[in-house]
């Protein structure tokens, strides 16, 4: 057997080994993806979704969360006297731009952080409307942490209830992202802009 023939055979064997290894890697990767999907499904079994909760809007009327089926929902705790209060403007910009893409923002006033939301529901409504032109749905004032934490926020913050993650509310304007099936998918921390790439990409991706 000539040197060139041996070299050719070696190349063929190397190529075959590379293809086989590549195929095994792809198969292993697929197995890991299936395993992860199975784990996620198991975590979600028996867990509540957004539509299982009842809330009142800022006027005191029942707001049906199940009316949001098929929409992506950003839930945010808001405050009128916080350094992050100007995020109201960015939230409204986000809502104006993507509200026709099955997206909605739900604002929950809360006075849990240094008394930065002291007003009544009517005062809060007037404040965010007059100063920031807010038109996205605003709910009545609630507690987002502590012994009197609202049931919805207990679900948002505890993996044992949402099946996804534990993430307490650390400050005003923390954003929770809910998918079209009413499941929690991610959290965006208070200082991150509502117009951040992370949020916009989440809204616009199919």
Written overview of the protein:
The chain is an alpha+beta fold and 206 residues long. It has 2 domains: 1-45; 50-204, Glutaredoxin (3-Layer(aba) Sandwich), CATH 3.40.30. Helix content is 41%, strand content 14%. It has 6 helices and 6 strands. It has helices at 3-44, 87-98, 121-132, 151-157, 159-162, 197-204; strands at residues 54-56, 62-64, 72-78, 103-109, 175-178, 184-188. Residues 36-42 have low confidence and may be disordered.
- Based on the coordinates given, report the CATH architecture of the largest domain: 3-Layer(aba) Sandwich
- Percent of residues in helices comes to 40-55%
Distance between the termini: 58 Å
Q: What is the name of the CATH topology of the largest domain?
A: Glutaredoxin
Provide the spatial order of strands within the biggest beta sheet.
4-3-5-6
Query: How many helical elements?
Result: 6
Radius of gyration: 24 Å
Gross morphology: elongated
Mean pLDDT: 89
Tell me the count of domains.
2
Question: What is the SS-derived class?
Answer: alpha+beta
Percent strand equals 5-15%
Total number of beta strands: 6
Lay out the secondary structure.
Layout: H1 3-44, E1 54-56, E2 62-64, E3 72-78, H2 87-98, E4 103-109, H3 121-132, H4 151-157, H5 159-162, E5 175-178, E6 184-188, H6 197-204
Parallel strand pairs: 3-4
Antiparallel strand pairs: 1-2, 3-5, 5-6
Name some characteristics of this structure.
two-stranded antiparallel sheet; 206 residues; Glutaredoxin; 2 domains; 41% helix; alpha+beta; four-stranded mixed beta sheet
């Amino acid at each position: 057997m000539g040197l060139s023939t041996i070299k050719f055979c070696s190349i063929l064997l190397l190529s075959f080994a590379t293809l086989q290894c590549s195929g095994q890697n792809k198969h292993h990767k697929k197995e890991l993806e299936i395993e992860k999907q199975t784990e996620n499904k198991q975590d979600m079994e028996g867990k509540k979704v957004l539509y299982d909760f009842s809330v009142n809007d800022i006027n005191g009327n029942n707001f049906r969360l199940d009316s949001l089926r098929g929409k992506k929902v950003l839930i945010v705790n808001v405050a009128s006297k916080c350094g992050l209060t100007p995020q109201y403007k960015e939230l409204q910009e986000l809502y104006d731009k993507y509200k026709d893409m099955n997206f909605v923002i739900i604002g929950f006033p809360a006075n849990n952080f240094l008394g930065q939301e002291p007003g009544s529901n009517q005062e809060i409504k007037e404040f965010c409307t007059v100063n920031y032109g807010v038109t996205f749905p605003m709910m009545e004032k609630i507690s987002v942490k502590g012994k009197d934490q609202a049931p919805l926020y207990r679900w948002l913050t505890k993996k044992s209830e949402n099946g996804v993650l534990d993430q307490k509310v650390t400050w005003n304007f923390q954003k929770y992202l809910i998918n079209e099936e009413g499941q929690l998918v991610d959290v965006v921390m208070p200082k991150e802009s509502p117009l951040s790439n992370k949020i916009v990409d989440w809204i616009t991706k199919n």
